[in-house]
Write a structure and sequence with these properties.
The protein has about 120 residues and is an all-beta fold. It has strands at about 25-30, 35-45, 45-50, 60-65, 65-70, 75-80, 85, 90-95, 100-105. The strands form two sheets. It has a five-stranded antiparallel beta sheet with strand order 1-2-9-4-7, with no helix packed on it. The chain has a four-stranded antiparallel beta sheet with strand order 3-8-5-6, with no helix packed on it. A hairpin with a 5-residue loop joins strand 1 (about 25-30) and strand 2.
Length: about 120
């Protein structure tokens, strides 16, 4: 597959541009009853995200392509089928290549939806 299924890309769940940390990324968010969120991202261009910190844990898995996580100057390539856990409070950034698809679970509220 080169894309997420249509039901996962419902416009009501589209992540607002203001909640995107990386330029050229299309994302969709789903909320958990406990305030956690899952997000699905599709990278339409090679781009990077500036270092940032969350006050909740983050788990990610790369479905397609490669996401290079940057922590303390270390570059950690995460390829399709690989996963990574980012504990709360850890400063991290990253780089993606065009066509990369990722799924993230956040232990808190990470993204806001596009408002109609």
């Amino acid at each position: 597959m080169d894309d997420f299924p249509t039901f996962m890309k419902c416009s009501a769940n589209r992540i607002a541009t203001s909640s995107q940390a990386t330029h050229g990324v299309e994302g969709y968010v789903f909320d958990g009853a406990d305030g956690s969120q899952m997000a699905f991202w599709i990278c339409h261009e090679t781009a990077s995200s500036a270092p940032h910190v969350h006050d909740y844990d983050e788990y990610m898995v790369v479905v397609q392509g490669c996401y290079t996580l940057i922590v303390d100057g270390r570059r950690i390539p995460i390829k399709a089928g690989e996963e990574y856990f980012i504990p709360k409070g850890l400063s991290h950034g990253g780089e993606v290549i065009t066509g990369t698809r990722t799924i993230h679970a956040f232990g808190g509220r990470r993204a806001e939806r596009v408002q109609p």
